[in-house]
């Protein structure tokens, strides 16, 4: 346990001992209160699993941002679409009456096929807080590669089920370095506005922000940023801000204000299930098969593609293997999912004509996390809304944009917590490991030092100004930085390299990439608005010219 976690000077009537005694109760809450929830329905009436032997015009792999945009626009153009999703439908409540479990009480619904949680914030006062859970096809996948753990959403809605909903359009001056081959005028005039509108993006009411308890942590973050001369910017989000006001007032069931985020949000967040996917289903032309995992795509003898799909149960075991044909296939399995499929299919002979750019250009969006220990007279609040609403922008001068993130533990922690996005130059590649029969990623944990240095341009200055220090107890014992993960995998099938400038895979007519794997490793801000806007751009061109 670190000795440096509490900056108490004893001057405001809160002793270190009392503080520690108080935090003992959250540890109890955080570590001991797991409930195991009984099984979920594996599929629902709203979904109809694909039949083996089916022939479909379009098959979309994955139901995240890219896949959902493709499905909606193709359906609106009159095309029947089959969406294949390895995760669950997430439309049926468990025995507690809720679809999703809370961040403070992870149960079987929380993690994808793990027997122990792998929480991004793994320790409190240096004490590990991960706990055993039953193995289940839960919502958050913490996928381990040699140098990094990549967090991803699993289920109908992909990352939109688990993310913070921060919906950020990059500054226009940064766009040329994000997607160099894409016309910025078109993106900023047409596709970013279209994406923002369809995603339901909104910004917190600043007057409400200034007074409400659940954003005290963000006001402290703003004060510290501004006192050190950094701009604090409000960050738009897809959370329903009117709902947040009501839950905060206690007139509707609590969701963000009760800490729901990482393992799903039961009420206020506009995930893709409520936006693009709802619209896609309403066309009557889109069918979704949850708990179905695509394992192979190869040219079919009579034209189109043979797609092999494993139907799985909630233990992750294959129950049926199905073979279907599709005239066109869209890879929307996310940066990691799409890259792994394409790398394996190229190496094992199913799609040998894919070019040598497959698997390259992967980045972590420069993610690093840290916490700061505030003085005892600068509390961040017991109740913290789980939805971030602001960030500190030092991109131009220091290469870092830091979300002021909540730490919704239910007790006063005196901590400020941040997820930084940094301008890291490092890029990794996926490759086929034949001996181990799996895809590897050659990311090196040491590369995170560049990101840490960039994040320090913000937090060293704030600590110096405030007379505070870093928390050293949140990610291990005496460990300041979480340098082992990313929430923002990007790249692996980069636009205009592995594909043409609209996501058509080189080497195969009728195969497309439509997700975050098109973006070469960094978006300078949180990525899903850019993924959505790029998918809107690409599918419009594909519908106009290919169908
Ligand atoms: P994604 O949403 O990952 O969807 C891919 C889908 O494909 C998933 O549902 C997979 O289960 C499915 N799949 C994969 N392989 C297969 C297969 N073989 N067969 C069938 N299905 C398959 O891809 N971004 C922001 O902009 N703002 C935030 O506030 C934010 N917070 C985040 C917080 C967390 C904890 C995490 C994990 C991510 C966060 N992100 C955030 C990142 C964001 O969710 C991510 O960039 C997008 O979800 C990526 O969209 P894609 O369409 O590329």
UniProtKB/TrEMBL annotation:
GO biological process: cholesterol metabolic process
Keywords: Cholesterol metabolism, FAD, Flavoprotein, Isomerase, Lipid metabolism, Oxidoreductase, Steroid metabolism, Sterol metabolism
GO MF entry, a single one: cholesterol oxidase activity
Pathway field: Steroid metabolism; cholesterol degradation
EC number(s) stated in the UniProt entry for this protein: 1.1.3.6, 5.3.3.1
Domain of life of the organism encoding this protein: Bacteria
Cofactor(s), by name: FAD
Pfam families noted in UniProt: GMC_oxred_C, GMC_oxred_C_1st
Domain Glucose-methanol-choline oxidoreductase C-terminal: 486-535
UniProt-listed Gene3D superfamilies: Cholesterol Oxidase, domain 2 (3.30.410.10), FAD/NAD(P)-binding domain (3.50.50.60)
Family of this protein: Belongs to the GMC oxidoreductase family.
Name used for this protein in its record: Cholesterol oxidase
Organism annotation: Streptomyces beijiangensis
